[in-house]
Protein: Aspartyl/glutamyl-tRNA(Asn/Gln) amidotransferase subunit B
Organism: Dietzia timorensis
Amino acid sequence: MTAPVDTSNIEPLDYDDVIAKFDPVMGMEVHVELHTETKMFCGCATAFGAEPNSQVCPVCIGLPGALPVVNRLGVEWAIKIGLALGCQIAPSSRFARKNYFYPDQPKNYQISQYDEPIAFDGALDVELEDGTTWRVEIERAHMEEDTGKSTHIGSSSGRIHGATHSLLDFNRAGVPLIEIVTKPIIGAGERAPEIARAYVTALRDLIKSLDVSDARMDQGSIRCDANVSLMPKGTTEFGTRTETKNVNSLRSVETAVRYEMCRQAAVLEAGGEIALETRHYQEDDGTTSAGRPKESAEDYRYFPEPDLAPVEPSEELIESIRATLPELPWVRRARVQAEWGVSAEEMRDLVNAGALDLIIGTVDEGAKPADARSWWVAYLSQQANAREVELSGLQITPTQVARVIELVGEGKLTNKLARQVVDGVLDGEGEPDQIVADRGLEVVRDDSALQKAVDEALEAQPDVVAKIKDGKVQAAGAIVGAVMKATRGQADPARVKELVLASCGAS
């Protein structure tokens, strides 16, 4: 009998070699946490960041005799997501108990849906970097409840292995989840990692447009499980898959899929076998590590939830929800691109930067598209990088940015002063008008005060005055600069220049 091959320390195969020898197969499972005010089966609050175990009750911590009641809005939002994905909505769907033990699952089972999901057979067309489109087929979207959160103490990796003890917070237990499962994604070839990222990006944008979730990957309100397997070239039988759990950024989705392809290829090339298992993504180096053996459906011992009746939405309800669907993100992008006169490449850059929705929101508040783009893509992007947050994570709203732009347009602020106002908003000092007043930032329009500052600057630089009088008008810039410094940037540079030239008898 041949001894098993040790592949624990094998180096991943070069990506080009992987593509030459194997065809990847992917399946994406994305969990969307709904931002309903209460949990899926009880009345507990769902606010993110509350004190641990402060948002719990007998139902969501599984005390004996406590009975669940379905959150109607959670069901309606599940239907809304299904319709936006082009899914069929089941006339009757049923909840099931998914049985497994894990410390953060207080009932030892999760209320989910198994063979009767609420939505099925949909598709999502995703745009790739070069502008081409790839259709991802949706197998199902089903309702379930989230688990609690474990914090492992004493482990260098933050995971349970090596931990001395774990802390459990059940605030998240019972929060409504929609799990969206794709059909196998076949034929992607070398673009598989890119397609994985593009799919999760498009799905996140869609969910945000529906206003059913915060869609914050950094806070876990969207979590992606990436299933990857390889088929040797020329074969059609799927290989054994791994499931990389809870990948929490778009870049990480792409990196995790690419790494798993290279790792699995190296194992297969060495004569080893791929283990059917979950894996953990390591943010620090872009690798994955083994988790636990992957259960099959039989392992979970699904059976119908006896305490909940089937969900049977009427056609009238489904059509009323369909009528509330917003303009879908890709449709809106095409419209906005035409209205703004930007290229497809510029539009993709705005989307990739996470700026498009913010710019549209600023334009909706009255700003010109060019001004809104300039603020979000330039200064505010710099501030996001400096503060190490996503652009959408900055503590400033499109309404506030539009007001700053309006103040500049009214001549009450220069661009330099406007940046100070924006900094104040970002630092939590209040609304733009309040910051202008508190900091005394409004542009000085009193000609007598400006003339005094001009006279003082001219007196201090007689050589510059001589140049201006000799016709070297560009020399006025030195005087303008001195006046701007003296007025702390609150003078209107154009008006200052007019006063300087008039004082020197030039034009």
User: Anything to note?
Assistant: The longest strand covers residues 133-145.
